[in-house]
């Protein structure tokens, strides 16, 4: 066999090995150049073909064509194989979990207010609102609070320059509703309150309460107890127990505090925790709004919203609710 054909076959074999090893388009390009490029092997071989004796020419020429064909075919195959491997590695993996998108949602305080409102609405309570800037009469006097009561102190209450104040409780809304409306009255009032408390894990200068008031004929403390028990069960689960402890508030007589028994509180022992102040509306309060205490009686209660949210969601520090750290808020 012609020496030239042998040389061409060896070159083909070598270039096929190089193609097989090529890992990138640049590698392929390099192999292509070494065979087909201007300085490449095959153009040089074609020149040598001129010197081949005439009787061998057809045979050598034919071999050269076949070798070129084999090489270009291998080149094309390799280029396609590389492109499809590339496409696969860039493809979208439909089994990947999606990146999480946060949509907005209610603040845990608003959520807790909504939960309370829903529960009381089913018991027939109507939701009302009152002003955050109050006068002394509605915040204290009408609520039977003596002139020397410590809660009136400017150390505890934010007084404004015009003699008004930031309400320290939602109780003045009771007065505003009763002034406008004859009994029966059955309202709740959620809202912000303000006190000069030093902020710590359980105190904030700005907090929220939900006030409740029911006035009618023949309302007894049993009705109050039933209402608080129903609320506690709906809010914290069917198995909760409540207990009422004697207490003092100027606007109720008798006054109580309501505790809920939390089983396994924070993974530890069972614990009684206070959720509300309450009592039978003091006859003086009824007289202040023009109701006849000989005909009407009623109960009132006030609950801390933050405290409720902290118990329900096991939040250890009230300040988390006001820092607006989205890492905290996203948990709800
Ligand atoms: N206003 C009271 C407070 O801020 C809570 C409260 C207690 C409200 C007894 C009431 C009530 O209506 O009857 O601590």
Q: Could you provide a short overview of the structure?
A:
By secondary structure, this protein is of the alpha+beta class. The chain is built from eleven helices and nine strands. 3,4-dihydroxyphenylalanine binds at residues 169, 171, 211, 249, 252, 277-279, 300-302.
Mean pLDDT: 92
Order of helices and strands: HHHHHEEHEHEEHEEEHEHH
Question: How widely separated are the two ends?
Answer: 84 Å
State the low-pLDDT regions, or none: none
Characterize the overall form.
rod-shaped
Beta-strand content bin: 15-25%
Helix content: 40-55%
Provide the list of bound ligands, each named once.
Answer: 3,4-dihydroxyphenylalanine
Q: Structurally, how many domains make up the residues?
A: 2
Class of secondary structure makeup: alpha+beta
Name the CATH homologous superfamily of the largest domain. Bira Bifunctional Protein, Domain 2
CATH architecture group name of the largest domain = 2-Layer Sandwich
Tally of separate helices: 11
Spatial strand arrangement across the major sheet? 1-4-5-9-8-7-6
The largest sheet, given as strand count, sense and whether it forms a barrel, is: 7 strands, mixed
Q: Measured on Cα atoms, how large is the radius of gyration?
A: 43 Å
Give the class-level CATH name of the largest domain: Alpha Beta
CATH topology of the largest domain: BirA Bifunctional Protein, domain 2
Number of strands: 9
């Amino acid at each position: 066999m012609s020496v030239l054909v042998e040389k061409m076959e060896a070159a083909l074999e070598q270039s096929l090995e190089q193609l097989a090893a090529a890992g990138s388009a640049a590698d392929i390009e390099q192999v292509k150049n070494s065979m087909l490029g201007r300085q490449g092997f095959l153009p040089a071989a074609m020149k040598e073909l001129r010197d081949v004796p005439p009787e061998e020419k057809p045979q050598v020429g034919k071999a050269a064509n076949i070798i070129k064909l084999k090489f270009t075919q291998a080149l094309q195959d390799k280029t396609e194989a590389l492109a499809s491997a590339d496409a696969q590695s860039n493809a979208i993996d439909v089994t990947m979990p999606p990146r999480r998108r946060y949509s907005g949602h209610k603040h845990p305080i608003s959520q807790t207010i909504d939960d309370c409102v829903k529960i009381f609405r089913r018991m027939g309570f109507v939701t009302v609102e009152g002003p955050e800037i109050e006068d002394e009469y509605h915040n204290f006097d009408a609520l039977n609070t003596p002139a020397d009561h410590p809660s009136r102190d400017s150390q505890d209450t934010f007084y404004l320059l015009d003699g008004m104040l930031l309400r320290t409780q939602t109780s003045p809304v009771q007065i505003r509703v009763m002034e406008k409306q004859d009994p029966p009255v059955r309202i709740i009032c959620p809202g912000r309150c303000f006190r000069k408390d030093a902020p710590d894990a359980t105190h904030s200068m700005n907090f929220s309460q939900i006030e409740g008031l029911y006035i009618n004929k023949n309302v007894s403390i049993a009705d109050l107890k039933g209402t608080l028990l129903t609320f506690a069960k709906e809010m914290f689960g069917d198995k909760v127990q409540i207990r009422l402890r004697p207490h003092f508030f100027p606007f109720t007589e008798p006054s109580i505090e309501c505790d809920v028994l939390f089983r396994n509180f924070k993974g530890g022992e069972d614990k009684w925790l206070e959720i509300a102040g309450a009592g039978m509306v003091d006859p003086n309060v009824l007289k202040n709004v023009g109701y006849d205490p000989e005909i009407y009686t009623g109960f009132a209660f006030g609950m801390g919203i933050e405290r409720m949210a902290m118990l329900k969601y096991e939040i250890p520090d009230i300040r988390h609710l006001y820092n607006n750290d989205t890492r905290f808020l996203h948990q709800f």
